[in-house]
Design goal:
With 296 residues, this protein is mostly helical. It contains 13 helices and no strands. Helix 1 packs across helix 12 and helix 3 runs antiparallel to helix 4.
Length: 296
């Protein structure tokens, strides 16, 4: 596939992922709980990938030696899924995704701490720029100057940022463990098992805590249906298409997701952020893309 076309396809996937989070916020605003959204989305994704495996004639069986590892990764992925949607439900979608997009920094630090491998020079240069961009995007100076009065609900905002950071740390951990434990497993099979664990764990938590809450109107049902369809289709397409297009050169384009979500959330939900926050968003996204395009 021509490089320009590959970039365009991956950019479209990033827009679909962003649309999924905007649809999730629409569902949350109309009665859907985070547990309901994660459970339904995970089940739809597992079913979609299982169908792909069936069409390709690939077995979904996982070697017995890898099942414990897949279970652990799935449990951490459950935390990531719950945390990210919890962030989206509390703060503007773009800010939630920007906070989550610090995971490359966390991954570099985790790798350094566990293997002693120092981050690449390009990564070290990008880290402070990403942090400055995140500070601007979250309008930390304005919040501090006003003692939190610029926020409609300071505690809700703080919780949203906290969940975003928790999603970042847990996702970085998933990437680290997947590379070490499950790298030799077919990506589709890995997805079925790890996302299957997410579906089971979150659904069980919803039953035990009575955490399921369904849409209260048509808008809520539309949001729930769209988030499940968009996430499942984008996730499946990513595993099918990106490896064929050269992941090293195209996957960083997925980091335009926060910017895409900013535009879509403005058009659909009426969410807006200040110009200084837009500057911060572009600093974060641009630095992440620049960092990932460096030599491997």
């Amino acid at each position: 596939m021509p490089h320009a076309l590959a970039i365009a396809v991956v950019a479209c996937l990033a827009v679909v992922f962003a649309s999924n989070h905007v649809a999730a916020r629409l569902a949350f605003d109309h009665g859907v709980s985070v547990i309901t959204a994660v459970s339904v989305r995970s089940v739809v994704t597992v079913v979609g990938v299982m169908l792909l495996l069936r069409l390709a004639g690939v077995s979904a069986a996982l070697p017995s030696a890898s099942r414990r590892d897949a279970l652990i990764v799935g449990l951490i992925l459950s935390l990531q899924s719950f945390s990210l949607y919890s962030a989206v439900s509390r703060i503007p979608v773009a800010l939630a995704l920007l906070t989550f997009n610090t995971f490359p920094i966390v991954l570099a630090l985790l790798s350094w701490a566990t293997t002693g491998e120092r981050p690449a020079r390009r990564t070290g240069r990008a880290m402070p720029v990403i942090l400055v961009g995140l500070v601007l995007a979250l309008d930390i100076p304005g919040v501090l100057a006003s003692a939190g009065q610029s926020l409609a609900d300071p505690m809700r905002f703080a919780a949203g940022v906290g969940f975003g950071l928790a999603a970042s740390v847990s996702f970085a951990t998933v990437l680290l463990l997947t590379t070490r434990w499950l790298n030799a497993i077919d990506g589709r099979v890995r997805t079925v098992w790890t996302m299957g664990v997410v579906a089971l764990v979150v659904s069980a938590a919803g039953i035990v805590t009575d955490g399921f809450a369904w849409p209260v109107d048509a808008a809520g049902w539309t949001g729930l249906a769209l988030l499940s369809l968009l996430y499942g289709s984008a996730f499946t397409a990513m595993y099918v298409l990106v490896p064929r297009m050269g992941a090293v050169n195209t996957a960083p384009v997925l980091n335009i997701e926060p910017v895409a979500s900013m535009v879509i959330a403005w058009a659909v939900l009426g969410q807006t952020i200040a110009p200084i926050q837009v500057l911060g968003a572009f600093l974060v996204v641009g630095s992440v893309i620049w960092m990932n395009l460096g030599p491997r």
